Amino acid sequence: MSSNSNFENTSSLDTYISAGNRKAYELGNRGPIRFNDDGTLDQEIIDAYWRCGFYVLEGALGADELSELQAEMENALERAPYTKDATVDAQGRPAMGSDLERPSFRFAKPLSDPYGGTELVSGRHPAKMNEPAPPTDAPDYVINSISSPLQIMDSCLRLYGHPQLLAIAEAVNGPDFTPFTESVIVKRAGLGPSVAWHHDGTTHWASPDLDEGSHGFNFMAQLYGSTAENGVWLLPGSHKKGKYDIKAMVEENGSDRLPGAVPMVCEPGDVCMSNRQALHASFANTSPDKRITINFGFHRRRSVLNVRTVHGGQEVVYDEERVRERSRLIALAIDARHQRFPHEQRYVYQPFAGEENANRWSEATRAAILKNYNLRDLSI
Questions:
Q1: What does pTM read for this prediction?
Q2: Contact status, residue 178 vs residue 172, Cβ threshold 8 Å
Q3: Which of 76, 123, 254, 336 has the fewest CB atoms within 10 Å, measured from its CB?
């Protein structure tokens, strides 16, 4: 069996993929970012996002920025630990991120489902995905995600300060919106693990104030595009209907190919915004195309302020101080981006308006604000 053998064993998926692709383009929820003359986001984008639970922002990243993101991402993967639990890269150098309090790179077995049917990640992946047999020459482990990439890749920090994307976050969550967490999903061609069906949100399902936006949304920046074979599938409108019994759905269906779901099909440089309450998953990547997606999310301030939860194994309260300190990363990213793209209109983040001098991007603020910033994440 050759290393490419799994690329060809997809005939049983053909009908599902074909139908999903067709439905994805029939939803009417994709197009370039558009603002009105008064600076507000085009209402059609907002309406389509709330109707479907996701929207594909076509061509959101310029060519220069996309090239920089791709180059720095490939360098990060080269400098990553050479395998699970390693502290050096493939050339024996100290692995990138080895000086941080929490590991940056996460590994899984090729084509596996590391979360489905387990209690990991708050048990939010209750049903196991199909696990194709990996090629005989596959490595024992592959990188499946990179956590908190803003502190190891400056291009990701600059992306985080993207003025149009931040303006969309304001339109959806209000001018005092707050961060969530950031990660990079890595789906190697022919080897990428799956992510079982789940809702991202974990905190507010039983709240009397639950609505379609209680758990915020993610931006998903696509560095090499996203296809039905290697990308995320989502059940449109599922963000409106509360928490699903995912295990029962999969058992009743007799397969992890849930009916009605559609793939988030994107070109390189597209950014998909996805509601964190929507039901979604990604299948093991047996295709010949890799996918690398930078995820960064935002919340409404009232959704996180004074929430009591467990973070990093300890009970914490998201009080005013924690919310402010974590939100400072937005102000820092805005300045980092302005230094790289000085002719671009700079976004004004209201919680730190007038405090630009205290949040200048420099080696000093890299050490004081950026390093280990994920210890203050706002996960709900």
A1: 0.93
A2: no
A3: 254
